[in-house]
Amino acid sequence: MRHRIGAALTGLAVAGTALLATAGTAGSHGYTDSPISRQRLCADGTVADCGEIRWEPQSVEGPKGFPAAGPADGRICAGGNSRFAQLDDPRGGAWPTTRLSSGQNHTFRWRFTAPHATTDFTYYITRDGWNPGRPLTRAALDAQPFLTVPYHGQRPPGTLSHSGTLPSKTGRHLILAVWTIADTPNAFYACSDVHF
């Protein structure tokens, strides 16, 4: 009897280790933490009721080609992934914001758990007069990104920072960061609520 219990426990331990090994990396990739993204706010517990994104802030992956392609309007912050729909919920415009200075230089920072060959990083911002109480749409964004950082197929390190000039804005806005992967059909999306 003791031998059977020991064998069963060993089998469970092996199965559990295999499950953890595959679950931790299957959807692992990257997110922004400067300015802090919605997924990071969920992961660190600043924002509650986030669902699965709390354990997978790096997994907001969706089709690339934004803005011509990519996630549908209203599903952009979650990368079109229904598992992370809480990121698209505007929460009445009450997501915590990062304070930024209009027209100033800012250092954007990404954290990666599985770096990929990268085409570029692009940053969009909402138009003046956008409604923070509604899910993000393409029409709510300025037509052109305010910053594009080419990466020429390289793989980024565990943490990557790059600087750019913020647009001239006032009040509450949302920055959409898009990390476009060179060797897959996907990109990663991160929405950061900011206040100028």
Account of the 3D structure:
Residues 29-194 form the Chitin-binding type-4 domain. It holds the Pfam family LPMO_10. This is Chitin-binding protein. There is one protein chain. This protein has helices spanning 2-26, 38-43; strands at residues 30-34, 61-63, 98-99, 105-112, 118-125, 147-150, 159-165, 172-181, 186-195. By secondary structure, the protein is an alpha+beta fold. The chain has one domain (28-195): Coagulation Factor XIII, Chain A, domain 1 (Distorted Sandwich). Strands 2, 3, 5, 6, 8 and 9 form a six-stranded mixed beta sheet that branches. Strands 1-4-7 form a three-stranded antiparallel beta sheet, with no helix packed on it.
Shape: globular
Number of helices: 2
Largest beta-sheet details? 6 strands, mixed
Rg from Cα = 19 Å
State the fourth-level CATH superfamily. Answer: chitin-binding protein cbp21
| Helical content band | 10-25%
β content, as a range? 25-35%
How far apart, in Å, are the first and last alpha carbons?
68 Å
What value does the average pLDDT take?
88
Name the CATH architecture: Distorted Sandwich
Defining traits:
single chain; 196 residues; alpha+beta; Coagulation Factor XIII, Chain A, domain 1; six-stranded mixed beta sheet; three-stranded antiparallel beta sheet; 2 helices; disordered N terminus; Chitin-binding protein
